[in-house]
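Q: What would this chain look like folded?
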Amino acid sequence: MTASIGFIGLGNMGAAIVRGLKGVELHGTDLNAANVETLARECGLKAAKNAGELAACCDYLVLAVKPQHARSVCKELAPLLKKEQCLISICAGLTSEKLKGWLDKACPVVRVMPNTPALVNEGVFAVCLDDKELSAAQKSFVQEIFQGLGQVHALPEKDFDAFTAVIGSGPAYVFYFMEACIESAVSLGLARPMATKMVEGLFTGSSKLAAQSDQHVSVLREMVTSPAGTTIQALIHMDRTAMRASIIDAIRESYERSIELGQ
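A: My prediction, written as structure tokens:
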């Protein structure tokens, strides 16, 4: 029997997940009717008027609303859910315990933390399967549905703040460094469109090399670092200005903020 999944919220991430799913019956609701219409046309998603309507027909419900709206949605769902259903939350900062409390423990909960490269099927997902009420079939199914969008890592919830700081926020760090590289190229006389294209290729190629090589990234860095060359000169400057330590400290700040938001 084909599983049915209902999406409460069809913004960027909700829509990306819908587009990555295969072999399931899709349902969804969103305040923006255009989002629903687009996915109905492109993916065969069946429109629902509200979250309650989804609860009546779906095996799994994906909570993809902004965190400040999650409580009211959960309170609406609580009296409608059955034990055999499952809520999957991609709301940042909301713990499984908090979600289950809002649901009055009506059904098991899976917490998922995505990152934005999921929009191009290259995401990295953390999936929390700590809820003891989850069946083996539910655990397996939840991991499978995200595999079409990138990597899936089952993590205990205690590690979610670390994942958020490094991976959830990570695309912003990468784009920040890309911006710096582009500005450097422009300052050295390269045209901005060309510099942008070159830097995009630099990051795509380097990431692909790291993923496909059996060498550690430290060895790959050494391969580019010739004695008395241009690369070592730049790296010495980065070390002199404690760039590595600054990155580690910045991620620690993000980690601590993630803990604060979850309290």
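The chain has two domains: 4-162, 168-262.
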